[in-house]
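USER: I would love a firmer grasp of how sequence relates to backbone shape in proteins. This is the protein in question:
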Amino acid sequence: MQTWIYKGSRKTNTYLYITQKDDFSLVPDALINLIGETQFVMSVNLATKSRLALVDIKDVINQLKSDGYFLQLPPGDQKVERIC
């Protein structure tokens, strides 16, 4: 599963994973407003990875499949409630 990762401008170490490059149509507007302007960081094929540095790869894959995006917050930060 290919994913594209973007960093948010408003909060350090906040990353948004999406399933299509530059397609934020599945990401709620409220979430985009929360993280600010996004900047492309990298593309990763999750099928070739066994783990990620700071998040559980299974959680990323499951949320990408169900919602079309995954939000990675900085370690120790409170989780943002699901924005729908």
User: Anything to note?
Assistant: The longest strand covers residues 38-45. The two ends are 24 Å apart (CA to CA). The first helix runs from residue 29 to 35. The CA atoms of residues 27 and 69 lie 6 Å apart.
